[in-house]
């Protein structure tokens, strides 16, 4: 049964007097526990599709149903609440809060959810250890390399144990060891907690781990295959 269903999705951006058709009539179903890679050339619409599924952008046309809820009909405050409790994001630009430490950035979503200080601390340190940054818990983003910031961003996305994780190029700035560790962690959560992952990626290391590959070109799905 599909837990994410996209129907006739379109997204048009206006750049001055020019209309850019980023997404062109996409239909897509994702089942619970899938480990899916969305692949395609730069500008093909991968990031736009993730942002639409995650409710960070509004479609020009079409509907997006997640876990039985049509998120295109939610008001802004309802959408914020829905994302808070259901979706973890890994942004290509990290989007860490500059004034917070690595640990505090990971704790932030759990704080919004009202989790106890003890629970936030335990989960944050557990994830920092998993991504190899336990010794940088008190470092702010400006004190971390790009790859370290990326690992904190992944840990933050996983912190609240969301049902769905949307990850935009999650391994773009990571070396082979860090990439393997992160993918192993995500596979573990996918297997043990049935967490659903959707990646936008160019990285062959991510594509090799995927159970399903959805290829996009010019805002359309041109190939969709299960590989595992």
Quick summary:
The protein is an alpha/beta fold and about 230 residues long. The protein has helices at about 45-55, 75-85, 100-110, 115-130, 145-160, 175-195, 205-210, and strands spanning about 1-15, 20-30, 35-40, 60-65, 70, 85-90, 165-170, 195-200, 210-215, 220-225.
Structure description:
The chain has seven helices and ten strands. With 228 residues, the protein is α/β, with parallel strands linked by helices. It has a single domain, classed as P-loop containing nucleotide triphosphate hydrolases (Rossmann fold). A six-stranded mixed beta sheet has the order 6-7-8-3-9-10, sandwiched between helices. It has a four-stranded antiparallel beta sheet with strand order 2-1-4-5, covered by helices on one side. The longest helix is centred in the last third of the chain and has 18 residues, at 176-193. The two termini are 18 Å apart.
Helicity level: 25-40%
- List the total number of helices: 7
Oligomer: single chain
CATH topology: Rossmann fold
Structural features:
228 residues, single chain, 36% helix, globular, Rossmann fold, four-stranded antiparallel beta sheet, six-stranded mixed beta sheet, alpha/beta, 10 strands
SSE arrangement:
Elements: E1 2-15, E2 18-31, E3 35-39, H1 46-53, E4 61-66, E5 69-70, H2 76-86, E6 87-90, H3 102-112, H4 117-130, H5 146-158, E7 164-168, H6 176-193, E8 196-200, H7 204-209, E9 212-217, E10 220-226
Parallel strand pairs: 3-8, 3-9, 6-7, 7-8
Antiparallel strand pairs: 1-2, 1-4, 4-5, 9-10
Helix pairs in contact: 3-4, 3-5, 4-5
């Amino acid at each position: 049964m599909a837990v994410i269903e996209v129907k006739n999705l379109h997204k048009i951006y206006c750049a001055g007097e020019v209309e850019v058709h980023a997404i062109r009539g996409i239909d897509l179903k994702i089942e619970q526990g899938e480990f899916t890679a969305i692949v395609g050339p730069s500008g093909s619409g991968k990031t736009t599709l993730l942002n639409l599924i995650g409710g960070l952008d509004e479609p020009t046309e079409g509907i997006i149903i997640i876990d039985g809820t049509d998120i295109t009909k939610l008001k802004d405050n309802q959408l914020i609440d829905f994302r808070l409790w259901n979706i973890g994001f890994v942004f290509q630009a990290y989007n860490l809060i500059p004034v917070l430490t690595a640990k505090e950035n990971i704790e932030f979503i759990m704080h919004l959810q009202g989790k106890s200080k003890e629970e936030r601390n335990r989960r944050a340190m557990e994830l920092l250890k998993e991504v190899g940054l336990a010794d940088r818990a008190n470092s702010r983003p400006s004190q971390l390399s790009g790859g370290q910031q990326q690992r904190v961003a992944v840990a933050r996305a996983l912190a609240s144990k969301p049902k769905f994780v949307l990850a935009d190029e999650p391994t773009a700035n990571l070396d082979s060891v860090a990439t393997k560790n992160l993918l192993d962690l995500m596979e573990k959560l996918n297997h043990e907690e049935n967490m659903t992952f959707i990646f936008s990626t160019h990285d062959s290391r991510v594509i090799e781990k995927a159970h399903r590959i959805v290829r996009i070109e010019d805002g359309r799905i041109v190939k969709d295959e299960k590989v595992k």
